[in-house]
Design brief:
Elements lengths: L2 H4 L2 H4 L7 H4 L5 E2 L27 H11 L6 E4 L1 H13 L6 E4 L6 H9 L2 E4 L10 H7 L3 E7 L11 H11 L4 E5 L21 E6 L12 E4 L2 H10 L7 H10 L2 H25 L5 E4 L6 E6 L2 H10 L2 E2 L1 E2 L9 E5 L3 H12 L6 H4 L1
Parallel strand pairs: 1-11, 3-4, 3-5, 5-6, 6-7
Antiparallel strand pairs: 2-8, 7-8, 9-10, 10-13, 12-13
Length: about 350
């Protein structure tokens, strides 16, 4: 048998998640991965690299629990929130028997992780405004063990109606885990569902240091849940999920000073987002700019594929969303520095498009 034939069937046919780095590009304005645009300096303080790290570094867990308003027993730290997605499936889904459910257009790793693990995927497309189709979800719940809801949603940028999430939690009580993916919650902190865990022990919340904390390269994420959920996830997590340098820097980022600095960065991004959205609405090639509660903006653009390639050739790397359901003609633009936002506007201003009268 060849190496290919030795592999599992589902892996041979799997299309891996197309991350920003996998898609490549040779630009100097990187606005395709929802990263913070400027590096934040840190210095390593831990010198015990000859020893294995703690499985769950106490300082990181305690500080994140304080920040998120939960207890340390409700926090698990992992290699990004992506690992949290996989751990939840491994703990709650039986391959070949159980399914996950998610509502496209949304984050692509839910399906990739499930397919890799041999877990079935069910989809219930969102309604107008990319809100949940609760009737459609109810009709698909039989056999579903985990429901993923991204809020604010990636790539559309809007919050999911909290009343709908509450209805979903009532609908799934005693039947399935509901995962609220809050990777972008620092840009709208009042919308967090972390305080709901006490009322809904089957609610799990995913968080990350990759966005507002400006630490995408650190690969550090958090899963918040009831102590019972966290105890189950601890059974399937790797023995040393965080390296000593990662734990060291994460602990620094979660000090009072680090959190204050994060909030200053968020304020800057929100200012730049407003500038970018206002400017986009004036451009002939931009047909629609959708509301955003995140550090990115989704826009529908005339001849979007050609525009994407034109900006790519000019070193401005955006994210093409044309293949996502209901997002034909849409590009996602990470909010960068003010200069980077201006570069995008100037480049888009050179593209043909609808006149202001035609937009109306």
């Amino acid at each position: 048998m060849s190496i290919e034939e030795l592999a599992r069937d589902n892996v041979r046919t799997l299309t891996p998640y197309q991350s920003a780095r996998r898609l490549g590009g040779n630009g100097d304005v990187w606005l395709n991965a929802n990263e913070y645009p400027v590096a934040v300096p840190f210095e390593l303080t831990a010198q015990t690299l000859n020893r294995y790290p703690e499985c769950q570094p106490q300082a990181v867990i305690t500080r994140y629990a304080d920040y998120a308003g939960v207890t340390p027993e409700q926090v698990l730290v992992s290699r990004g929130a992506d690992e949290g997605i996989e751990l939840i499936m491994r703990a709650f889904c039986e391959p070949g028997a159980d399914a996950i459910l998610y509502c496209p257009p949304t984050y692509g790793m839910y399906s990739v992780s499930a397919e890799t693990l041999g877990i079935a995927c069910r989809t219930v497309p969102t309604l107008d405004g990319w809100q949940l189709d609760l009737d459609g979800i109810a009709a698909q719940l039989d056999g579903v063990k985990v429901v993923f809801v991204c809020s604010p949603n990636n790539p559309t940028g809007q919050l999911i109606n909290p009343a709908d999430i509450r209805d979903l939690l009532e609908m799934t009580r005693g039947k399935a885990i509901v995962v609220a993916d809050e990777a972008y919650i620092e840009f709208c902190p009042d919308a967090s569902l972390a305080s709901w865990i006490a009322e809904f022990p089957h609610l799990v919340v995913l968080r990350t240091l990759s966005k507002a904390f400006a630490l995408a390269g650190l690969r550090c994420g958090f899963t918040l849940g009831s102590p019972e959920v966290i105890a189950l996830l601890m059974k399937v997590i790797a023995p040393y999920p965080l390296s000593t340098p990662v734990a060291d820097i994460a602990a620094q980022a979660l000090t009072a000073q680090g959190i204050a600095a994060m909030r200053e960065r968020v304020a800057t991004i929100l200012e730049n987002r407003l500038f970018l959205m206002d400017a986009l609405r004036t451009l002939p090639c931009v047909e629609a700019v959708f509301p955003s509660e995140t550090n990115y903006v989704l826009a529908r653009i005339t001849a979007s594929s050609a525009v994407f390639k034109s900006l790519w050739d000019r070193g401005i790397i955006l994210r093409d969303q044309n293949k996502q359901p209901s997002l034909s003609g849409c590009l996602r633009i990470t909010v960068g520095t003010r200069d980077e936002c201006q570069r995008v506007i100037d480049a888009l201003n050179d593209q043909p498009g609808l006149t202001a009268t035609e937009k109306q």
